[in-house]
């Protein structure tokens, strides 16, 4: 049994890790650009790549994944039998990225954070999602569509693994929560898609 105080500390640490706005900080430091004022206005890797180059965008992608992966891995090692806590910390990191207190709760869309948490907790589901995302992005150049399709594939894989007893249901539930949250964070992208105005990567 994990003490309530330890749970609170773990969840708070996950949120604080997720809330570090690497995209905003690195673009401002390396290029003098506020990514909230260019392109889509998002602080994530895709908009950083548009505003400051693909190398910086790739670095932000990695850091945004790590800020969920690291706390998820830490709690996995410290409390290996508490799958629900691993999922809670992964979701806390995701929420920190999407709703960072330092930016008036206006952050990124959370794709990289979700992938980072799933890589640690359900690596096969994360791999399936990335394998769907990559070729689709290459073909369409539309990040929103590729990300959501990848999320659907990852969630389906996670549910299948849980059904076969190869992963805890808490992890599968985390994947479903990620998918629903990603649909919400991409609501403007979906509207632009219907209007034929979505930006390409």
Major beta sheet summary: none
Taking pLDDT < 50 over at least 5 consecutive residues as the criterion, the unreliable ranges are: none
Pairing-aware structural class of the strands and helices?
mainly alpha
Shape designation: globular
How many β strands by DSSP? 0
Instruction: Count the DSSP helices.
Output: 10
Give the SSE order as H and E letters. HHHHHHHHHH
The rounded distance between the terminal residues' Cα atoms is 46 Å
Radius of gyration: 16 Å
Arithmetic mean pLDDT: 95
Beta-strand percent range: under 5%
- Residues in helices, as a percent range: over 70%
Q: Write down the domain tally.
A: 1
Which terms summarize this structure?
201 residues; globular; mainly alpha; single chain
Give an account of the 3D structure.
The structure is a single chain. The chain is mainly α and 201 residues long. Helices cover 75% and strands 0% of the residues. The chain has helices at 4-18, 22-31, 45-52, 54-78, 83-98, 111-121, 123-140, 143-163, 169-185, 187-195. 48% of the residues are buried.
Q: How does the SSE layout of this entry go?
A:
Elements: H1 4-18, H2 22-31, H3 45-52, H4 54-78, H5 83-98, H6 111-121, H7 123-140, H8 143-163, H9 169-185, H10 187-195
Helix pairs in contact: 1-4, 1-5, 2-3, 2-4, 3-4, 4-5, 4-6, 5-6, 5-9, 6-7, 6-9, 7-8, 8-9
């Amino acid at each position: 049994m994990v003490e309530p105080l330890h749970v609170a500390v773990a969840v708070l640490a996950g949120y604080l890790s997720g809330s570090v706005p690497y995209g905003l900080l690195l673009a401002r430091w390396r290029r003098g650009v506020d990514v909230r004022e260019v392109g889509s206005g998002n602080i994530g890797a895709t908009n950083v790549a548009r505003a400051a180059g693909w190398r910086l965008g790739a670095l932000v992608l990695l850091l945004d994944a790590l800020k969920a992966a690291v706390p998820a891995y830490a709690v996995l090692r410290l409390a290996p039998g508490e799958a629900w806590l691993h999922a809670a910390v992964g979701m806390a990191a995701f929420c920190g990225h999407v709703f960072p207190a330092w930016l008036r709760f206006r952050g990124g869309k959370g794709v990289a954070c979700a992938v980072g948490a799933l890589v640690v907790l359900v690596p096969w589901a994360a791999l399936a999602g990335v394998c769907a995302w990559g070729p689709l992005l290459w073909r369409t150049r539309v990040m929103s569509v590729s990300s959501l399709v990848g999320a659907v594939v990852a969630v389906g894989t996670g549910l299948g693994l849980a059904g076969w007893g190869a992963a805890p249901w808490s992890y599968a539930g985390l994947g479903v929560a990620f998918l629903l949250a990603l649909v919400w964070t991409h609501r403007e992208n979906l509207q632009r898609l219907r209007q034929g105005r979505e930006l390409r990567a």
